[in-house]
Design a protein that fits this description.
The protein has helices at 2-44, 67-85, 89-108. It is mainly α and 126 residues long.
Amino acid sequence: MRVRSLLMMLALTAAALGLNGCLQTCQQVCVENARYIDGCLEEWDALWSDFGYDGRSEVDGSEIAGGPAGEYIQRCEERYAAAIRQSAPETGRTIRQGCSDDLGLVASAVGCEDYEPNDNPLNPND
């Protein structure tokens, strides 16, 4: 009985670690997208608020760590986590693969007009 409990505990721990590991790439995409947008705002003649981010919590209006870029990262990570958690395993794998592909595009982007994830213009609100 103790062995079964120990094995069950190890399996649950591995599953939890696996889920976190799966999210890491998507979390990295959120951070890199935020850095990319932040670096391009001047060229785009735009501000974070033009994309709907002011760096304040919607709950109590307090300042979010990292300001508007931090708010973008937080919302982006929440969307990916919810999508992966609520989807079938195959769909979750597709989402994670999309994050990996997008991360490659962000990493290879040179200018502010050449990064279009999945052949769509960059829009932080999507």
